[in-house]
Design goal:
By secondary structure, the protein is an alpha/beta fold. It contains 17 helices and 21 strands. It has an 8-stranded mixed beta sheet with strand order 7-6-11-3-13-15-4-16, with helices on both faces. Strands 18-19-20-21 form a 4-stranded antiparallel beta sheet, with helices on one face.
Length: 537
């Protein structure tokens, strides 16, 4: 257990003294943003360090969220005992690129036009100052390793240093081969899967397999090692923002064999499903469930359901191992008492619920994700007593809330135009009043609204889903046509933004890419030439 740096009764006096001795460069700081210079507020206590740790594609299958009874996440579990766990956090988009762009810009996809993995976020937002650049402009040293921005879309201007380089954010990854050997590749997508049977336009990274290599030889470990070495080398007088992006449990689910061995295949439990779950889902929902060639059909026909779940659980255990090593390194460093730690993922994942085996959908298990924040006592003048140890927030929050939270904790001016809300009140009191809805988008003009226990989905063609998770936590019963739900449905529908930004430009598409629709007219034209997905009544 980490002890406070100072007795809590002395913290206000210490903060006041710090105001008197703070260098003028801090008190007169300005931050250049896309909206122009913004005068910084006078500095209070020495600014806190910040460590961001991202575990990619992690749903609620962790101990503190109880999403799967067999998940083994001892390091996340112990971190939750000291951090505030935002247990109902939602992504801005169920795709890596728009989710991370929204988190790191503080702006929603429906504000920016950055909706899809098949866009270049910097092309869509050429002048946007992203979170690490914002802190860099405020005098922070910024560095990172691994997947922070989307895969092959790094942002050199955000960082002083990055591993492997400012222009290459993904390290070499190990891939198993059919003969049992392992090879290193700059691409984590295998040319040919080793376990999942190929089908037309398949994303080849939808694959899994144990590797007979030590953890220390894996790609994510090289990112971890760089981050730990950098942490040890950073001086105590310079505030820093250090980001570590662990790619697992994103697929392909290739991790050392010892993590697979933790989950014997014959014991693996599948998540509960409803056989006819799609019967009351509109046609557009069917399309998303079977998006990209109907993975459900191919997973079930090859009888690989347990193998996929086992591989995901193994990948979570691997990511948790690396996360624990990073936390231990922070705690052993001279920065421990002055470092805010943030754990987050970018969205969830589906494993057969609604016949869906990927992300790219607006259901609860896809939109809900992981976010925890630990603020040590004395680290932030904004929150001198630190965050509540082991607190749990059940109010609805968004990943976009991180940017305004961190600027407030660091004593920096708020970036103009952000769509999130500072979580500082909830860090101080997890039961504080908080009435914001969680708004998510899938591509252009397809929205999810979460408010209280209610969940409303409206697709590009106007079709709808509506659930009350208080009585239907697995979203098995669509009540969009239930007259008893009409008033609540209308209330949530009124929260949908009416001025959604148009879809920004796309990158060159690969065979497995499913491009977003830029308008309802484009969608209707697609439907006119495409066989019906949902069986006719």
């Amino acid at each position: 257990m980490r002890a406070p740096l100072f007795p809590r009764r002395l913290l206000p006096a210490i903060a006041a003294c710090a105001l008197l001795v703070m260098p003028a460069a801090w008190s007169q700081a300005t931050i250049d943003t896309a909206a122009g210079p913004v005068a910084a507020s006078p500095a209070a206590a020495a600014r806190p360090n910040i460590v961001l740790i991202s575990l990619d594609d992690l749903n609620d299958w962790i101990g503190p969220l109880r999403g799967h009874p067999q998940a083994r996440t001892p390091n996340i579990d112990r971190f939750a005992q000291r951090a505030v766990n935002f247990a109902r956090t939602y992504t801005a988009s169920p795709s890596c690129n728009p989710s991370r762009t929204a988190l790191l810009s503080g702006r929603a996809p429906y504000r920016t036009g950055m909706y899809s993995n098949y866009q270049s976020w910097r092309q869509v937002l050429p002048d946007e100052v992203m979170l690490p650049e914002y802190f860099r402009k405020a005098g922070y040293w910024t560095g990172g390793a691994g997947k922070i921005f989307h895969n092959n879309q790094p942002d050199p201007r955000s960082w002083h240093e990055f591993y492997p380089s400012l222009t290459q954010q993904m390290p070499k990854y190990q891939q198993p081969k059919q003969d049992g050997s392992v090879t290193a590749s700059m691409s984590d997508d295998p040319a040919t899967p080793i376990n999942m049977p190929m089908f037309e336009n398949m994303y080849t990274a939808f694959d899994w397999g144990p590797m007979d290599v030590p953890t220390e030889e894996t790609g994510d470990y090289t990112s971890l090692r760089w981050a730990i070495d950098k942490l040890d080398a950073l001086p105590t007088g310079q505030p820093f923002l250090l980001a570590l992006g662990v790619y697992r449990p994103h697929n392909p689910w290739y991790v050392p064999r010892k993590y697979f061995d933790m989950f014997p295949l014959e014991t693996v439990q599948l998540p509960p499903t409803l056989e006819n779950d799609l019967d009351d889902i509109p046609e557009r929902g069917w399309e998303l469930a079977h998006r990209g060639g109907n993975y459900h059909k191919h997973v079930t026909e090859s009888h690989n359901e347990r193998q996929v779940v086992q591989a995901y659980l193994a990948s979570i255990a691997y990511a948790d191992d690396l996360f624990g090593q990073m936390i231990d390194a922070i705690d052993a460093s001279p920065h421990a008492g002055n470092t805010i730690i943030v754990l987050f993922s970018d969205h969830g994942w589906g494993f057969g619920q609604k016949q869906h085996w990927r992300k790219f959908a607006l259901w609860e298990n896809i939109l809900r994700t992981v976010m925890m924040v630990d603020v040590p006592p004395g680290a932030s003048a904004t929150l001198p007593a630190g965050s509540v140890r082991g607190g749990r927030v059940d109010s609805l929050t968004s990943l976009m809330d991180l940017f305004p939270t961190l600027t407030q904790l660091a004593g920096l001016p708020a970036k103009p135009g952000m769509d999130g809300h500072s979580l500082v009140p909830l860090l101080a009191d997890p039961m504080a009043k908080w009435d914001y809805p969680a708004i998510s988008t899938y591509d252009y003009n397809e929205f999810s609204i979460r408010s209280g226990s209610l969940h409303y989905i409206r697709y590009i063609d106007g079709s709808e889903e509506f659930y009350d998770l208080a009585t239907d936590p697995l979203e098995w019963h669509n009540r969009a046509d239930d007259p008893r739900a009409a008033a609540d449905k209308a209330r949530l529908a009124a929260m949908i933004p009416t001025d959604a930004a148009p879809l920004g430009p796309l990158v060159k598409l690969m065979p497995h890419h499913i491009p977003p629709f830029a308008s309802v007219e484009e969608y209707r034209a697609y439907k006119a030439r495409t066989p019906r997905e949902k069986p006719a009544p």
